[in-house]
Design a protein that fits this description.
2 copies of one chain form a homodimer.
Chain A: H1 9-27, H2 30-37, H3 41-48, H4 51-75, H5 80-96, H6 104-111, H7 117-143, H8 153-172, H9 177-192
The structure holds a DNA duplex.
DNA sequence: CTCACATTTGAGTGATCGCTCAATTTGATG
DNA sequence: CATCAAATTGAGCGATCACTCAAATGTGAG
């Protein structure tokens, strides 16, 4: 009954995610969103309540995708350590291909001011969840005997997330291509060195 | 002759630096600056030309301080590797003391949009200069025999800067205090492990 | 076809943005 | 003390911000 929305909600969210990821929260105006979502202000507010809420939904979407990607590859039976190594190499490759918008979570963590409690808290929570996904992956590696049994998966996950963070900021410096790939490769090598003998 | 400014230029710049470092470029309004600098809009524009130019000056001031700190400690004759280890520990300590505003350069690199060429380019240049300062410090360590003679100081500097970047983003996640200190300590330990035998 | 209602529309809200400039204040000089 | 140039002042500029709502529009049911 009655009229149906002409747009697909998830398609709109994807457009918002891309826009916010590239421009950040403050620099993205409703005018930008109107163009990207192909929606008029009234529709945007009817569908997503506010700019802030739309941002939160886009952030969730991004983080869920990151986690799902890891979980999915595990279920496909890929070797856990190789998944992680491919993950860090993919970041460098994405940057080299100039499709780089950075990590939405990292961008948000560093952009948000102390006043914006809601966004800040959400970004922190999601970042911790991503770290947990890394931990689960390393746990998988331990169970499969890829890593020594006495490895601390949580500590390793935090170390790895820090490497990812570092690489992502390094990408923002736009050094030459080889340097970024070397940096990613060096992290992959560090992971290789942790393998059970 | 004639009237003198009632404010000290560098004091004003320091206030601007602190404000921009904590709130970022977009979220800082002229009203905020008026309060922090205790200057009226006309004076701000007479002295600093524009919000963007004031931001660039503040960014320069921050980066120059970082570089000077390293160079100064070297001149005092401190051991190069200990300077670097103290540097990474200081980041964790600053965060633990809740005086954390993050690194102005990192914040800027990740906040700035592709359109803001001027700010982006400056931040990238300054970040590269800081990396050079790290490289000089490591070169010092090589010359002093603290590191093996075949160490590549530029590669080591980039690795170290990536660790600093990673730690700074980790700080923005507000994990518990011990985790941050552990992460910093682990970087310090990695440096220790590179010492010449 | 008509009605009921979910949905879109877009001009317009008040607030705030970065910024300007005519008027005023200040202080060193003669 | 009078002069004058440098500097501050703050009301207010046009533009843009996030957002609203009365009116127009599309759609499924009867």
């Amino acid at each position: 009954m009655t009229r149906n929305p002409p747009y697909d909600r998830d398609t709109a969210l994807e457009a918002a995610e891309t826009l916010f990821r590239h421009k950040g929260y403050h620099a993205t105006s409703l005018k930008d969103l109107e163009v990207a979502l192909n929606m008029r202000p009234g529709s945007i507010y009817a569908a997503f309540k506010s700019k802030e809420n739309l941002f939160l939904l886009a952030l969730d979407r991004y983080a869920r995708k990151e986690q799902a990607s890891l979980a999915c590859q595990l279920e496909e039976g890929q070797e856990a350590l190789q998944i992680v190594q491919a993950h860090i190499r993919a970041i460098a490759a994405e940057w080299a291909a100039e499709e780089f918008g950075g990590c939405f979570l990292v961008n948000t963590l560093l952009e948000v001011t102390p006043e914006q409690d809601t966004i800040r808290d959400r970004a922190q929570t999601l970042a911790r969840e991503v770290q947990s996904a890394f931990r689960d992956t390393f746990q998988h590696a331990i169970d499969a005997g890829e890593l020594p049994a006495d490895t601390d998966p949580a500590a390793l996950a935090q170390w790895y997330q820090m490497q990812v963070f570092g690489l992502r900021v390094l990408c923002s410096m736009t050094l030459n291509c080889a340097d970024i790939i070397d940096a990613a490769e060096s992290v992959a090598q560090s992971i290789e060195n942790k393998r059970a003998a």
